[in-house]
Design goal:
Elements: H1 2-11, H2 15-31, E1 47-49, E2 52-54, E3 58-60, H3 71-75, E4 81-87, E5 100-103, E6 108-111, H4 120-129, H5 131-134, E7 139-143, H6 154-165, E8 171-175, H7 190-211, E9 217-221, H8 227-239, E10 244-247, E11 268-271, H9 275-289, E12 295-298, H10 304-312, E13 317-320, H11 322-327, H12 330-339
Parallel strand pairs: 3-4, 3-13, 4-7, 7-8, 8-9, 9-10, 10-12, 12-13
Antiparallel strand pairs: 1-2, 5-6, 6-11
Helix pairs in contact: 6-7, 7-8, 8-9, 10-12
Length: 358
């Protein structure tokens, strides 16, 4: 009820301004220990995956907190994990505003943000300042390339980011699927992807020795893939022993929203209209992977049935973003309860509240 009232105020504002105001408000609520007014109790449904213990299967997708500046505020809402970023080696402003558009009739968002962020060094500082990771909370870092880095040198940017975040990230996601950075999706093609992952896996092994800990490496793929491309990506992931994959990023499709205001804006579409497409890709990918690599399902999760469908299609975890914007913190609990192991505990706080945040 409270979020419904707040959403009316936020949706009366420009989308990006509302986004920033909402995050600042969450941060203030966390500082004042008032997060419980917005957040339902944390759902306990622990799962071990990639050597990590997730307190439940619902996480926050990358893009909401690009600089890791709101980790504790978001952790207090009951997420099982957070993914921050996308971050690039150098700070960059992203694409010109306006670049974020709501389509409320379709429960969707179109964005062309363009990896706007303060740079990897700032993100690392913010992670180190946060209480949540120090208390065992899982914070993944999504990495990308700067817009002005030539595509043939993209691997250099990913290596810089991996090197800098390795010591502070729970896992690292390689973003080659955003539609808002020119030529980025070309890195999903067979030769380019194989070369990029080979370099990153070599660096990962070196960094694991250097830091004395193994940090899983994941790949985030697009929903706009042909079946043959999915098979090639799956083969490459297995061959390079990538630890996990996130399916999917936003889509270039406009099916179902063409007639709506802002429906033909340039950028990636997320939310309810993406659900069917992203879940189909998820299912095909998990089949091609032969259950050898875990998959995190994201794209269009707006209710518990959507989260269940992602798990049924082969996902081990799910992430939400647009659904969180439209439904608020209640969706975290609803989705987590919807996919909880029937043999698991009842909804309650995990006894060690240290993993929830502050």
């Amino acid at each position: 009820m409270l979020y419904s009232l707040l959403r009316r105020v936020l949706f009366a504002m420009d989308a990006e301004s509302a986004h920033n105001l909402a995050l600042d408000g969450l941060s203030l609520a966390a500082c004042l220990r008032l997060s419980s007014l917005l957040a339902p109790p944390l759902v306990s449904d622990p799962v071990e995956l990639m050597g990590l213990r997730f307190p439940n299967k619902v996480g926050l997708a990358a893009g909401l907190d690009k600089n890791g500046a709101y980790i504790d505020a978001l952790a207090a809402l009951g997420f099982g994990h957070l993914e921050v970023g996308t971050v690039t080696p150098r700070a960059q402003p992203g694409n010109p505003r306006p670049r974020l558009f709501r389509l409320p009739q379709a429960q969707a968002i179109i964005n062309r943000m363009g990896f706007n962020n303060a740079g990897v060094d700032t993100l690392v500082i913010n992670i180190r300042r946060a209480e949540f990771p120090r208390r065992g909370g899982i914070v993944g870092v999504n990495i990308g390339k700067n817009a002005d880095t030539p595509i043939e040198k993209a691997h250099e940017d990913y290596l810089v980011c991996l090197e800098k975040v390795y010591g502070d990230a729970s896992y690292v996601t390689v973003n080659v699927s955003s539609p808002n950075t020119r030529d980025l999706r070309a890195l999903q093609e067979a030769a380019a992807l194989d070369g990029l992952l080979a370099r990153l896996k070599t660096a990962q092994a070196r960094l694991a020795d250097q830091h004395g800990r193994y940090v899983p490496l994941l790949l985030k793929i697009a929903p706009d893939l042909e079946d043959g491309q999915i098979t090639v990506i799956a083969d490459t992931l297995r061959r390079r022993c990538v630890d996990g994959v996130i399916a999917t990023n936003t889509t270039l499709s406009r099916e179902g929203v063409e007639h709506l205001p802002h429906g033909n804006e340039t950028g990636g579409l997320s939310g309810a209209p993406e659900f069917r497409l992203s879940t189909a890709v998820l299912g095909k990918l998990t089949h091609a992977l032969r259950k050898e690599i875990p998959v995190i399902g994201v794209g269009g999760v707006m209710k518990r049935e959507d989260a269940r469908a992602k798990i049924a299609a082969g996902a081990s975890l799910v992430q939400i973003y647009t659904g969180f914007i439209y439904k608020g913190p209640d969706l975290i609990r609803e989705a987590a309860l919807g996919i909880r192991d029937p043999a698991g505990e009842s909804s309650r706080r995990i006894p060690d509240d240290s993993i929830r945040g502050v």
